[in-house]
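A note from the maintainers: we've had questions about how concatenated examples are separated. There is no special marker in the raw files; a new sequence line simply starts the next protein. For clarity in this README we add a label.
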Amino acid sequence: WADRQGVQEGLLAALSDPGLGRALAAIHRDPAEGWTLESLARKAAMSRTLFSERFHSVVGETPHQYLTRWRLQQARRLLAESRLSLERIARTVGYESASSFSRAFKQGVGTPPGTYRREARTA
């Protein structure tokens, strides 16, 4: 569909690109993996430089920014829909500890994960 519509930027364009699509599918399938620029470039069958430049030009953010945003999106869902501990959620979405997850969550979302969970449950 993206190809037929001439979509050249954004997530749909990236998903329709064979290399970028493989890298994005890997991120979505396993956000907890210790993804690096090198490992994602390998998934895309590109050099690190080409992958990084192509990803940024098509998606509009760096692979690291996208990965972080995806992890935090999954964490928001788990906080709102599950009773998993912060430690378990942290590991599920790719953080080594609840404290590193909490710092990243507060920086990315603007509120601590515990506060987010309470507010999501009362909404």
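[label: protein 2]
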Amino acid sequence: MKILVIDDDEDLRNILAHHLKQEWPNLQVEQFDPLQRDMPDASFPLGDYEVIILDYMLGRGDGLEWLQHFKARSDCPPVLFLTGAGNEIIAVRAMKVGADDYQRKQEMTREKLVTSVRE
């Protein structure tokens, strides 16, 4: 299994990878820093991943825009959308754009993360 984590916070990317690898030791987690790299274009192999974990606030980009771009592609896997500034408006917008699940970072636990990725 292979997961893509897109977040501008390296510490959070590492924590998510750690929690996921505790559940699935053979899991490959690719960390994508949107401060260092632009939004992936059509040549980026989204279909190589079983799940994308995508943050709302990307430092220099809007996660909802990235989500919409990804979901327009036929090879887009399920997306878990994260936010630190969560409110119902963001959650509704994310789900309308195509997020498969939504989690607030402040409320996320290892169990919630694993459950969301498993589903």
